[in-house]
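Hi everyone, sorry if this is the wrong subforum. Our group has a chain we'd like a structural model of before ordering constructs, and none of us has done structure prediction before. Sequence below.
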Amino acid sequence: MADTQAKDGYYYTEKHEWVKVEGDIALIGITDFAQNALGDIVFIDLPKPGKQIKAKDSLGTIESVKAAEDLYSPISGEVVETNATLGSNPAAVNAEPFETWMVKLKNIQTSELGNLLSAAQYKEYVSKLD
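Answer:
Right subforum, don't worry. Here is the predicted structure as tokens:
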């Protein structure tokens, strides 16, 4: 199992989204497993700042040469920023899935982090999918 499957300090969903909390802001993206399964990403549709999101709500869509998938929020909060560079360079997610966040949330519900997988738990989960 590659070390790129999960990074410590992040929380994961079984739908292959990650969340990283930095202070009172949560960054959300997709895992290496997800970008690999999708293939070359060609378009990402994200919500506008100000939108209230609940955990497991759709955050938008991600399209690749293979498929279009919904993105789901790992935790609740308010969209404060979307990654503007993804409009012109969605393939950045393929190159660096853990460094390329898609959405930043504020007013996050940190109590919901306990419902997510740790890096070790996510690696175990992904190992059963191979």
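For your construct planning: DSSP finds four helices and nine strands in the chain. The first strand starts at residue 11 and ends at 12.
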